[in-house]
Amino acid sequence: MQPFSTHTGMVMPLDRVNVDTDQMVPKQFLKALTREGFGRILFYDWRYLPGEKPNPEFVLNFPRYKGASVLLARANFGCGSSREHAPWGVKDYGFRVVIAPSYADIFYNNCFKNGILPASLPEDQVDELFKRTEKEAGYSLTVNLPNQTISDRHGLIFKFEIVPSRKEVLLKGLDDIGTTLQHAAEIDSYEKTHAATATMYDSVDVKYYSNGR
Amino acid sequence: MTPKTLYQKIWDSHIVREEPGQPSIIYIDRHLIHEGTSPQAFAGLRAEGRKVRRPDLTFAVMDHSVSTTDRTLPILDNDAKLQFEALEKNCRESGVRLFDMNSKNQGIVHIIGPELGITQPGQTIVCGDSHTSTHGAFGTLAFGIGTSEVEHVLATQCLVQSRSKTLHILVHGKRPRGVTAKDLILAIIGKIGIGGGNGHVAEYGGEAIRSLSMDGRMTVCNMTIEGGARAGMVAPDETTFAYLEGRPFVPRGKAFQEAVGCWKRLHSDENAKFDMTVELHAEQIAPQVTWGTNPGMVTSVTARVPDPHDFKDLNDQKATESALKYMGLKAGTPIVDIPVDRVFIGSCTNSRLDDLRAAAHFVEGKHVAKNIKQALIVPGSRGIKTQAEKEGLDKIFTAAGFEWRDAGCSMCIGMNADVLPPHERSASTSNRNFEGRQGKDSRTHLVSPVMAAAAAIAGHFVDVRSLDVLPVE
């Protein structure tokens, strides 16, 4: 996974609470077999009019935000479906950072698997960033993960909190599976002892298998 | 010893490795997969030369995009076809059991897990689907994961997780007639809000929860995620054990008795501490109908569509305004005056036998209203479909003007041909009323199966408590 350390980029404001993952990647795009290409369809139903004509009223299509790489959002961002297609789309579109007061759990977790930093700031600070983004064309922010700061060129500096282990995953671009597999011996030993307990059983009844056509 | 919550007990018994300041590696007892969120995970494994560690603990089913009509016909949706083929190939190559679309056990992943007894108390269960919370009804720790985590579980049978906070949701008292499990959970979400449970695992308790059947408990746990909590659970009891006994994957005879002995310890200890507690009184809950574009935008059937200015918070005002515009609703309209175009009874929330029986009881001898363009009944699994047909429910529905379909996710997500057309309004027993959820520009009202049945007959929402034909509970 691509490591994340510091990122400077233009901000795009998405001024809406409870943005769900159905909006990021609608159902018709869930039939893909790969992780690629979701940037083009990110926020599809908001972004396009019939015939895939860009909807001029949707912020993603405002010429002033072309090339934005920091997504500024409202509370409970990414609620609903667990579809990882949503962060794939966010990343593929070109966003490296999301800033919001809060996130839904599954989306939050999925961001870390894809090298996206979902930074949380208090509501009033997010409000301030919305104001500044609105006011200044090309408003950009620098997000520094090692120092846990978000700053602009006017001297604004906000500190954000992040769990140290999450921070490490992004900084190092760690491959979770590889890390877990280093502990394969512990998994083996857990399976040996756990197999005897009623909640698991060594394996399910393998004799039962029916595809009864 | 410090009293523990049910969540803590299951968590503690699944720790493979823990280190201070680091997330733990926890073991996953059952991994459920479907065609929609697994192909990229298998591709990832293949790219790294990794194998499925425990195919025997992994169960696959086709549900999201399957047709609910004749499955002997060719699949016209080529993308869906490719996904089915990929799942079949991935399962065959890795030795994972697959309930394909022609299996007699096929159904929605969260329906067949419990129905076949794959889901058992005390387990950890994950699936690349947010409604995995359903399985918590058995006293399991079950939650939805993304595709990268699906790949992680396939490769390691473990997940890297941090402990969640705990949320105790108590519903006291007795449910009034006409108030179902669906109404309880919608009322809970209305109270805590759709982000209210973020960061928490919920445990449900109180008389109104304990008196629910397993089907009802699954409805409640299913929609836990709509309140932000990733998992919701109900401690197992005699209702749970009676449901499980004799199901295909459940141990039998002496082994079953031993299992029950262990399962009986799965409850929160007295005085166990929860990080947050929410209490409701069932007597005060009326049948619920959503009016907006998320499940927290919900009110009683006796109420009116709210005005954006009813809300203090500016963000809520804006969200309400935008929701009313999308839904084509005027503030102040009585909920019972909202006409419905289509009715959908199905989904992992409400497609079980209890749901179908209640709806059938209601519509027996009646006919859907003239303004209803389509009324769909989609059983959650082929097992449920078969049983319902034995009971003659299909005949009742078709005589009343409903369509009786084959099992799958269907119009809850509209990935197959069952799509709600633009600007049409549904009474739907599913779980999400997000913009475009059932079809682009479609308008979803989430309700219970009884309310959906009543809306089909009346052509609009009705206070089902005022009718004398309610199912006996």
Short description:
Chain A has 213 residues and is α/β, with parallel strands linked by helices.
Structural class of chain A: alpha/beta
Sequence of secondary-structure elements of chain A: EHHEEEHEHEHEEEHHH
Terminal Cα span of chain A: 43 Å
- What's the β-strand tally of chain A? 9
Give the N-terminus to C-terminus distance of chain B in angstroms.
41 Å
Question: Per DSSP, what share of the residues of chain B sits in E-state strands of 2 or more residues?
Answer: 15-25%
Oligomer: heterodimer
Strand order of the largest sheet of chain A: 6-5-4-1-7-8-9
Based on CA inertia axes, which overall geometry of chain B fits? globular
Task: Report the largest inter-chain contact.
Answer: A-B, 66 and 91 residues
Number of helices, where a helix is a run of at least 4 consecutive DSSP H or I residues of chain A? 8
Helix content of chain A: 25-40%
Low confidence ranges of chain A: 200-213
**Overall average residue pLDDT of chain B:** 96
- Structure classification of chain B: alpha/beta
- Roughly how much helix do the residues of chain B carry, as a percent range? 25-40%
The fraction of residues assigned to DSSP E strands of chain A is 15-25%
Radius of gyration of chain B, taken over Cα atoms and rounded to an integer in Å = 21 Å
User: How many beta strands in the DSSP annotation of chain B?
Assistant: 19
Major pleated sheet of chain A = 7 strands, mixed
